[in-house]
Amino acid sequence: MKKSKVWLCVLLIVLAAMLVFSGCSKSEYDENDYETEETTAATVETTQATARYNHVAIQNCVVNKQDGSPDFEYYYKCDACGYMGDWPKTASSTGDSVADSFFCDTCNDWKMVYIDTYPQ
Q: Is there a contact between 92 and 70 (Cβ–Cβ < 8 Å)?
């Protein structure tokens, strides 16, 4: 009975050691992983550089400048009274909605701004 307990203990220790050292057999840094990450980053940059976007004013704004890139300019414009902001705002979007807000002095109320971006 005592020999079986000893053997069981030795077996458990060996199994535990195998589990611990099995994770250490490969280094955490692998050159192939680095090359894959670098290639993926280059692919994403190329895709973003060639992708074109259309920015559409949905509520309380006017899109002023857009050239197909993610960056664009817009002015605040109150849909209720026609008040228009004095200077343009800049934003960047690659397919999401842009939300902003401003205070309309004429209506004396906060207005929400929404701009949607669509890939071309």
A: yes
Task: Measure the CA–CA gap between 30 and 81, rounded to whole angstroms.
Answer: 62
pTM above 0.70, yes or no: no
Residues in CB range of 80: below 8 A, 6 or more apart: 104, 107, 111
Q: How many residues comprise the chain?
A: 120
As a whole number of angstroms, the longest Cα–Cα distance in the chain is: 93
Cβ neighbours of residue 84 under 8 Å, at least 6 residues apart?
62, 75, 76, 77, 78
For 21-30, the pLDDT digits (tens) are 666 555 555 5
Give the whole-angstrom CA distance, residue 83 versus residue 105.
Answer: 8
Query: Which residue type, as a one-letter code, is found at position 99?
Result: A
Task: Measure the CA–CA gap between 99 and 95, rounded to whole angstroms.
Answer: 13
